[in-house]
């Protein structure tokens, strides 16, 4: 049985349980005074907007150079994939694997995963609610690790700055990639996971 079926609203700020007031268009939390809703307003619309924007930016994030390493006045810009290939050529397989997973696989999984959640909820697809909620929690968990490349680039730009001898510059690809990561994290936040259970047809999923 869902909380909404019992006439209970959960505050999104302090998580206080509030008894739903009949015939009330706007209700505030009895503890913190925040406005409470049965479900986050326009959750699907906002999540779709953030997801589509991040999907558009995902293209330049992988096509544009993410950073340029200059040595003795010469340097060649690298995209995420070309950087992975360079690391493999130098025998740095563990680092290449970490960069590939954090910068290629994780963002791709997040985009596809959130898209599947939104589609399954809107179209009421006969999918297991337990599987969908596990996917949602996994997306939330791995979201922060996508920033690994950005943190590394920020550190390298600050530390490696020896004029014409050696320097590292961040390129537009880094900006696009950081935008993708931030937008997908926001998409996971704006998505209301309670909608998953609202669209569950099987009673077993509510046990």
From TrEMBL:
Residues annotated as transmembrane: 48-67, 87-120, 141-160, 172-191
Record's GO cellular component terms: plasma membrane
Subcellular localization(s) per the UniProt record: Cell inner membrane
Name of protein: Paraquat-inducible protein A
One Pfam family linked to the record: PqiA
Organism: Pseudomonas auratipiscis
Cross-referenced InterPro entries: PqiA-like (IPR007498), PqiA-PqiB_transport (IPR051800)
Keyword terms, alphabetized: Cell inner membrane, Cell membrane, Membrane, Transmembrane, Transmembrane helix
């Amino acid at each position: 049985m869902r909380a909404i079926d019992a006439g209970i609203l959960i505050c999104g700020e302090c998580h206080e349980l509030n008894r739903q007031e009949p015939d009330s268009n706007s209700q505030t939390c009895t503890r913190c005074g925040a406005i409470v809703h049965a479900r986050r307003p326009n959750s699907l619309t906002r999540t779709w907007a953030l997801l589509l924007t991040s999907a558009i930016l995902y293209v330049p994030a992988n096509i544009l150079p993410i950073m340029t390493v200059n040595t003795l006045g010469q340097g060649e810009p690298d995209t995420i994939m070309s950087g992975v290939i360079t690391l493999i050529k130098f025998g740095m397989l563990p680092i290449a694997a970490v960069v590939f997973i954090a910068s290629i696989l994780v963002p791709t999984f997040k985009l596809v995963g959130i898209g599947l959640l939104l589609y399954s909820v809107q179209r009421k697809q006969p999918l297991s609610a337990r599987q969908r909620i596990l996917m949602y929690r996994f997306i939330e968990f791995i979201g922060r690790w996508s920033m690994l490349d950005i943190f590394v680039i920020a550190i390298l730009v600050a530390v490696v700055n020896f004029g014409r001898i050696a320097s590292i510059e961040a390129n537009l690809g880094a900006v696009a990639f950081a935008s993708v990561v931030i937008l997908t994290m926001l998409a996971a936040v704006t998505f209301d996971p309670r909608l998953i259970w609202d669209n569950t047809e099987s009673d077993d999923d509510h046990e």
